[in-house]
Specification:
It contains 3 helices and no strands. The chain is mostly helical.
Amino acid sequence: MTELLERAIAQLKIRPVDQQNAIATMILEELEEEAKWDQSFARSPDLLAKLASEAMAEYHTGKTQELDPENL
């Protein structure tokens, strides 16, 4: 366990039980979501490579434009 994680857990131990449970729930949900993404990417590496290749081809042929967050 890293020092940073140990410090975080030490801080959590002094919190009320409801806060401990809320934070634990958030951490577990995040880990579960990460595992789902990992599984999805593992099942479709060829598709992801194809999509990335197509996106780069569009970029190189000038068919893309810069993202302007102000105009989403």
